[in-house]
Amino acid sequence: MNQDTYAGGGVVDQIEADPVNSSTERSLYEARVKIFPAKVTGAFRRLKWWIMAVTLGIYWLTPWVRWDRGPNAPDQAVLVDLANRRFYFFSIEIWPQEFYYVAGLLIMAGIGLFLITSVVGRAWCGYTCPQTVWTDLYMAVERWIEGDRNARMRLEKAPWSFSKLRKRVSVHAIWLLIAVATGGAWIFYFADAPSLAIAFVTGQAPAVAYVTVGILTFTTYVFAGFMREQVCTYMCPWPRIQGAMLDEDSLIVTYNDWRGEPRSRHQKRAAQEGLDVGDCVDCNACVAVCPMGIDIRDGQQLECITCALCIDACNNVMDKVDKPRGLISYTTLSDYEAHAATAAKNGREAAKNEQRRVSISHIARPRTIIYTALWSFIGIAMLVTLTMRDRLDINVLLERNPLFVTLSDGSIRNTYTVKLLNMQPELKTFSVELEGLPEATMWFQGGEEQRGTSFEAAVQPDRVRELRVFVVKPEATGTENFRFVLTDEGSGAADTAEAQFHGPQQ
Fold first, then answer.
1. How far apart (Å, rounded) are the C-alpha atoms in residues 131 and 128?
2. Is 80 exceeded by the pLDDT of residue 434?
3. Helix (H, G, I), strand (E, B), or coil: what is residue 440?
4. Which end of the chain has the lower number of beta carbons within 10 A, N or C?
5. Higher pLDDT, 53 or 392
6. In 359-423, which residue ranges form alpha helices assigned H by DSSP?
7. For residue 3, what is the enclosing H or E element?
């Protein structure tokens, strides 16, 4: 590593760092070249730490949050109850027939991803993608035990010794613990977390729990520990899709070559000789900190995940050489072209004076407004329907074998399977009534004493009660349409189900 002193008095390390994952250097048939990202400080690095802490905290702690839903419902705040086919999210309970709410959330997630990408490029990849978050955590462990970039590179080349073995075993042991915790946290979303944790430790959990933890442990350990940038480059489809989401006003991490070129490692000497040089001191700091192993100065690349660590590294160097920040920055294509034109016409200093900071005009654009409006509309519609939805339901299925029965007195009987759904955490008594079928009477199997045009049935909390209902009409020919009307006797809420009554054809 060499050092140079610049006009501003700062000393900058000249790092020997090659962009090992550059598309011009990478072969589809070459084994992975290990990347050793250097430590960096700055606003974007701090943002990544905060996002990592929040996302991992949400993932690991959410299953342990309690939420009181009454004596007949689980008290886990977020629970995917596959056995009873329920999804609980705090005060919201989603039943199988309400899966459209989950579909709505997935649509909102997709539109949100489009919105973020159109504003700031692959920010999802750089900050909140699980692959990025866990890889960042693994690299932090690696750096904590083995040291920064140069120390890790020396350790990689060093012969095996007790010190090297101790460090490598420590790193991989902590990686495995993180991987196990990752798989363990996932299964807690599908059962009561405290109960499942005890059963898992004592060997009494279902086999699927151990298999799930094993699979997620393996994938986390391999993807975050050994495949890192390869997952983003080769396995993830999003880098190839995101181009359709960008336009000339999208903010992307950009090397402003109109300002940095021609680059020179000896700017002080070049200035004394009257040579024209740009602001880039060719220190390779941006390459050294890149977790994807690319050189942002080569332009936009599929491998770039927009983590912006190169911006932090470059800004630190610009501070040392007493030059304005922003040689590498979040910039739109339209701004870049405008600044490049100004630099060509009026010089770099004039263009630097025109460099814009990120403002509301970069964000509030027709495309982003449309995405935001669509995202908000879906969200509001889901909230409205959630607050207005009925908590009871009736489903009717006609038994077709036989389609009808002619009784000894000449009357016609149809048989139906009627399901009464009580979505409340308390016992409910429902009234079921015939509507639109004159002279007909009905009763359910086991409730013959309630024969008439209606009957009452109690349904346990948060359960479905299935009844076999017989409907009889003195005279019937052909097909008649009618309705079953379900009414909650306590609240007066009602629901209906259309049905058909069949008799002999004329």
1. 8
2. yes
3. coil
4. C
5. 53
6. 360-363, 366-388
7. strand 2-5
CA distances from 381 to 13, 244, 423, 453, 480 (A): 56, 28, 21, 38, 36
Report the C-alpha gap between 309 and 146 in whole angstroms: 21
324 in Cβ contact with 254 (< 8 Å): no
What's the start-to-end Cα distance of the chain, in Å?
99
Q: What does the alpha-carbon distance between residue 174 and residue 240 come to, in Å, rounded to a whole number?
A: 33
Q: Is 135 exposed, middle or buried (0-12, 13-18, 19+ CB in 10 A)?
A: buried
Gyration radius from the chain CA atoms: 33
pLDDT tens digit sequence for 454-467: 999 999 888 899 99
Q: Which residue has the higher pLDDT, 16 or 408?
A: 408
pLDDT given for residue 20 in this prediction: 65
Element (H, E) at 79: strand 78-81
Structure tokens at 54: 């929040």
| Residue 142 per-residue DSSP state | H
| Dist. CA 332–CA 320, nearest whole Å | 26
State mean pLDDT over 409-436. Answer: 92
Instruction: Find the Cα–Cα–Cα–Cα dihedral 262, 266, 270, 276, rounded to 10°.
Output: 10
